[in-house]
Each structure stands twice: as structure tokens, then as C-alpha cells.
Amino acid sequence: MSTQEERTLARIALTWLAEPGTRSVYRLAARLGPVAALELLLDGGAPDEKLRATVAARVADGDARAVAAEAVARTERLGARIVTPEDEEWPARLADLKGLRLLDAFRRVDTETDPPLCFWVRGGWPLGEALERSVAVVGARAATGYGTHVATEMGYALADRDWTVVSGGAFGIDAAAHRGALNAGGLTVAVLACGVDRPYPMGNTALFDRIADTGLLVSEWPPGADPLRPRFLIRNRVIAAGTLGTVVVEASARSGATQTAHRALAIGRPAMAVPGPVTSAMSVGTHELLREHPKARLVTGVPHVLEEVGRIGADLAPPARGPDRPTDALDDDARSVLEAMPRRGTVGVERLASRAGVDIRTALRKLSLLEELALVARRDDGYALAPAPRPAARRPGTPASP
Amino acid sequence: MSTQEERTLARIALTWLAEPGTRSVYRLAARLGPVAALELLLDGGAPDEKLRATVAARVADGDARAVAAEAVARTERLGARIVTPEDEEWPARLADLKGLRLLDAFRRVDTETDPPLCFWVRGGWPLGEALERSVAVVGARAATGYGTHVATEMGYALADRDWTVVSGGAFGIDAAAHRGALNAGGLTVAVLACGVDRPYPMGNTALFDRIADTGLLVSEWPPGADPLRPRFLIRNRVIAAGTLGTVVVEASARSGATQTAHRALAIGRPAMAVPGPVTSAMSVGTHELLREHPKARLVTGVPHVLEEVGRIGADLAPPARGPDRPTDALDDDARSVLEAMPRRGTVGVERLASRAGVDIRTALRKLSLLEELALVARRDDGYALAPAPRPAARRPGTPASP
């Protein structure tokens, strides 16, 4: 029986031998376990000719196990961590990628779309928890002022309602969505197509640092990995499958952003598009998506987005756990106040009252009750959810061991 | 047996007794004929209480038959004409209004949507022929620069492909669509909610004169009739039913323009909407339409519009009339050249060659052939379709007698 460390090393080595998403590798690892799968591949036993050639070329270049060990050491030096399906924080939702079949797929990135073998993560939040209530906001690099405005507003409004924003790391719509979420003090996740230590594009370095401080930088590639062109499309399946829905804000004709939406549709997740002026080249892709896919939904703002992902969110929410939880004793007002509490950070009474739809005196009365029940804690700058009922969240500076 | 003149007078009188579209009046006229229906109503024999009251109030105000005779005289003085279902130029398509049932209709204009009893028309084209290949382009009065631009381009491009543009007479999108069509030398039809002699709004007077010169001004109300508020909505059903499809370019929330689209959908015609910036109040109505009606189609330009109405157009096109037409002898190039000829006006050889997708020498060769077959005529300023194979079109200045 292999140890978890051996299995993690094998997963890293497999990721190095063939790009993430490669179906034959994923299936081999699922059937034999990563350690035996690695041994088989290194012994030249790949199940198909193409994979055998790929592995042979890689092996001629270096020792897969040594490369993996070096990646682990480098990850530790960075203060990042490696997350595998064996970790509690692994986002279970990614398993849906096993069923992803794109129509008319002719390029390799459209057929090799199986789930990731492991992630590199920078940032303190458990990955699965961060993605639990998340929406992807994606779009063109060469965004217009209009698109940038809409993406920033959308990132802000999602974060303000305690939804996690997920995007890539590109200029334009991606960066605007992250900035919006950061401005709202919310949680934002950048899924990169290169190492989490290697900001690409360089111009977004300061943004990546802000994201790593309060959100997450995530990648399927080890530290130092280059942002090779096909990796952006390989990465897109993770953005589509890791979130409850994908919104395309602006996209030119046949852009990568609309491909993320196609991946979302292919696994039954809502794909949404923001319309724009028909005179704008940056709205051609969103309009195409809306015209060509009967299931793609036109959205003009976060209320529309939440209509789509809310349904899915409700479906995926854990069922009630039994009759004797402290919240069962709450009346409607107290429940509203509790539900209006931000997932993270503190909130003032006035803001809370307005979010809960109650007057300030009611809010104060219900907060006292919630404090007594240890559901809410008073802080210097307002009220926060009490940490007790939530699963242990790893804070920045305490990375999990790989 | 009544004469056609008596029947026309009765239709006018009925239109005066109750607003056009009133279901009980339309059905009475359909069952008894307009003359007997008028007699019945004037004798106090209206089939329902409401209509009896409406008629009584009108009759207290004047003599219906005298009002009708005066309307006929005034129409003749104007150089306009009255068109009834007994005329060859009546647009048969309007009969579809008999089946119009709007969901959730609670206002009278949403339930009284039967076909018109007669039209007043200014302009030389036979009404039915003008509407045969027509698209409605409608939208907000308070259009933005974006909407005005899109409507003008759309009017131009439709007219350039020999489609008739149909709209109301309002500022904003309506006026822009007409101007686009006029700039392309095309046929445009303004359906008014007041008399055809009574330009409303006044600011569009010059536009109405241009439309009457080369296109048509059409109304269900006699000369001198006021543009009362409900009449705009009553009128909208004619725009929806008289055309092969309705495009809403810009509309605020719950505007009259989206109601035209709803009427089009209710009788199975394509309803289309042009998206715009989500930050624009003038695109709220178009986005609503696209979100709420699964059959409403997002269009970004005339090629998309023609995709929708083209199918309907093909359905409604008369079947081939037999094997011995002169066009049967044509080869592909000659047929392309003939099909590229504008429906009206002349075209230069270069433009024609480019529209037909042939080189100029081929175009000239095929034009000689088409001339010999009397399908095309050479003019001082280019080539035109020969008048012979087309139904006799009334030219301006030769109005039909009512």
C-alpha cells in the first residue's frame, strides 16, 4: 500500500508526463491508483500509441520522480501547497468533468478534458470551500471600457452577496472581475495556466499578490511552469467545472471565454452571457453564444446570475442535518439576520439590518440572541459569524502539507 | 345586394362607431356584411351591452353615414385612397389577427385585436405588394445615439436587399428606420395612429412627406383623426401582422415597441430584438423580451433578421407556376444577375455584378440576354426590372378609388 506522499508524488509526475486532462492518464490513475499508473507508464506500458510516444519523449528529458520531488520542495519554499483528490479541500464538483463530451470536438484540448490530478494552491482558504458558492466571470483580454465596467460591477456585487468570483488571470475582463471582488472585500480565485509563482501576464503581478493574500491562486501546473498556449483552454474546463455557473462578459468571435461557457453547458452548468452593443467586436462572441445555444442565458446583472446559479446552489446545498440545531429555535427575523451575515469579515448593524430587511432595533435584539447562541460574535468593528459551526478553514501562513 | 361603395361607407361608419380592432364589430361585419352590421348597430342591436353603450354615445354625437361620406370626400381632396378587404391590394396577411390572443390580457387594447375594417393610404404602391416582403423595425422614441445608428443601418440594409421597412411615425427608432430605408432608395411604410393628413409628431412632417412620395402612409383612422393614446397600441397589431417579422431595436421596460413584438409572437411571426449595453435604460425592454420569450430571437444585424423572416418568406412565396416561364431557360449566372436586380429603380453594372457575385463581363453578357427576354430594361442610368411580368403597380398620383 502506498503512502499519501507517494501518491501525491505520482500525481505530480503524471501531470509532468502528459498535460492535465489527458483522458487515458486520468483513467489509468483512477483504475490502478496513481503510483501503479506511473510505474506502468514509465515502464512503457501506456495503453495507446500516442501516450506511449508522449511519455517516451518526456522521459528522455528527465526523471519523472525526481522532477516531482523537486516540485514538492519548490512548493514548500513558496509557501504554497499541493491539493489532491485525497484532501478534504478537494472540490468534489470537478468529478463532473468525467462526463464532459464536447460536440464537434476536433482539437486535443476539446477531447482531453478529464478532471485534474492535483492542484497547486496559494492562499489560505480551503479550495473546496472557496468554490462552494462560486461563479465564473470571464471574457476578453482586449475588453472595452463597457466590458471592464460590467465585469467590475459584477465581481463587486457577487462578492457583496458572499459569492466567490472565479476567473483566469488575464488582462481585461478577468482582472476587472477580480478587482471588483477584492474591492468588495470578497473572496476571489484566479485559476492560472502556469505556475502559481509565475505571474502571467507580468502586468497583473500586484493583482495576483492581492488575490493570494485574501483569496486563492490555483493551477494544475507546478511552480515555474510556462503559460503555454494550449494550457489556457485546458485550464478553462476547471473554471467551468469548479463553479456553479459561468458568465461571459465580453468575447470576440470564437474566443476562449465562450469555450469556457461551452464546457459549462456540456456538464449541465448554467452558461450566461452579458449582451452589449452590436457595433462592438467584443460582444460578437457573447451574442453568438446566446444565438447558438438555446440553454445559454442572457443576463444583465447579478440578480439574473443568481437566478441561474441559485437553483443549482440549492440543489447542491447539503440537506438539513436533523432537528436539534441551534438555528431551529430562531424566529423569522433572527433567521434573516443570521442569513444576512457575511460569510467572512465583519458587518455593521445598519448595513446588516438593511441586508436582512429588518429595522435596526430588531437587528440589535436578534444579534444579542444570536450571540447567546454562539452563532455570531461581536468584534471591535462590527459583528461576524462565530467560527465554531464552520469547518476548520486554513488561514494564510498555515499551508497544508502535500 | 349592396354596392362596393355602400360597403366601404359602412366600414368607415363602423370604424367611427367603435375603435378598430373591436372584436364584436369585426365579427358582426364578417357575419352580416358591413352594411347590415351597420344597420343593426344603428338600430341599437349591438350584441353586447358595452358595444351598445359605445354606439349610443357616438350616435348622439353625429350621423355615422354622414360622417363616413364626409371622410370619403376629404380622402379624395387629399389625393389619398381608402383600401378595404374587397380591394386587390388588401394585405391578406392581416387575417391572422383573427387568431390573436394575448396571454394575461387585461386592458381593452390587448383583447380588442381583430383585423382592421379598412385603411386610409397615401402613396402610390399597392398596400399588399408593399408589405409582401416587409419587416417591422420599431423601438423607443427616446432612442440613444446607439439605437438610432442601429435602426438607420438596419433600415438601409433591409431596403438595399429590397425588403420593405415598416414602422410607426414616432421620433427615435421609427424615424431612424424610415430614414435608413429612404437613404437606400427603398420602400418604407409608416403605419400611423392618426389621420394620414395629420403628421404626428409635427417634427416628422418632412419625413412623412418623403415617405408619402416614395412609400406609403397608412392609417386605420380617417383624415383628421387625432393620435389618441390607446390608438398607438391598437395600431401596433397592424405593424405586427402586416409584416413577416418585427425587430425591436431599443425599448425601455414594458414599452409599446415590445408590445408590438408580443403581438407578432402571438400570431406566430418572428419577433427579434437587438441587444445593447446592459447599462442603457433603452435596452432594458429588448433584454427583457429576449429573457422572457423563448421564441424571441437576438439579432445583431440584417443577415440575422433575414434568417428569421426568410423562412417565413419562403413559406409564403407563391409556388412555381409551371414549366414554361422565360426564366426557366436561364443558366445559373443569368439567374443570379436577375435575382440581384433591385425590385425597384435602376442599378449600375458594377454594383449588379458585385451583388450577383459574377464578373462585369459576365454581368453584361447576361444582361443582354435578359433584355432580349424582356425581363430587364436598359435605362439612362442603369438597368431596371422590366415592368411586364409584375402585377400592375399604381404609381403616385393615380390613387385607387375607394
TrEMBL record, chains A, B:
Matches recorded under Gene3D superfamilies: 3.40.50.450
Pfam families the UniProt entry points to: DNA_processg_A
Location of the Smf/DprA SLOG domain: 82-309
GO BP terms: DNA-mediated transformation
Family: Belongs to the DprA/Smf family.
Name the record gives this protein: DNA processing protein DprA
